[in-house]
Amino acid sequence: MAFMDDLKSDQRTQIMAGGVIFFLIAFPVYFNLAADNAEEVEISGPIGNYAVNGTLSYHTLASDTEYINDGETLDLSINTDTISNEIEDLNIVGVRAILTYQDDEQAPAGCGSAPDDVSGHLMHGDLHNTETVSSGAEVNILWQNVSILDTTVENKTQRQIDEMLTNKNGTGYGVHYLQISVDVNQGSCLDPIRETNDNGEQIEYEWQLISLEYDLALVE
Questions:
Q1: Are residues 198 and 215 in the same domain?
Q2: Are 146 and 165 in contact (CB under 8 A)?
Q3: Of 58, 213, 207, nearest in space to 138 by CA
Q4: Contact 161, 50 (CB under 8 A)
């Protein structure tokens, strides 16, 4: 009862009681935060410089050869279910299409040929990319940072690098779209009477998903 009377009337007792209550609340919160941070550091690994080594692999969604007339677009779509057994549990990091062709422009003597414009447009979900490509080149979409492969990444934790390289959102699975377009460029002749003949391009395409395997090594 005396303590309760002092608590009601004595300022020093009130301050002392308040301090005890504060520490009773603050200490458990502090130690819980410290434990959580320690666990996060243990999972993430130390901050340092990491050598990143990896291998990209390619998994064909579709391949074919199609003749595309001047000014026209070939529209293709495919679902990754068609190769589900091949890509199951893989770290899918991108998609690409390799377009190969040879200009079939027919130019009589005294006339020159001109390279046509061939472009590929890849779409997956809200990701898309269009490129005008030379023969044998690719258009691609990459959703993980594969540019850090075969480099040393400085001042990062292992967890931070994993986030750059590991697809954790299921991106890449589902429906993909590919459009291939041709715009003919005709060569010129020495005289205005004759002209070259160029109706389009025969395009060979290889449409592939890209997967990644990698490992990290702490550089001392």
A1: yes
A2: yes
A3: 207
A4: yes
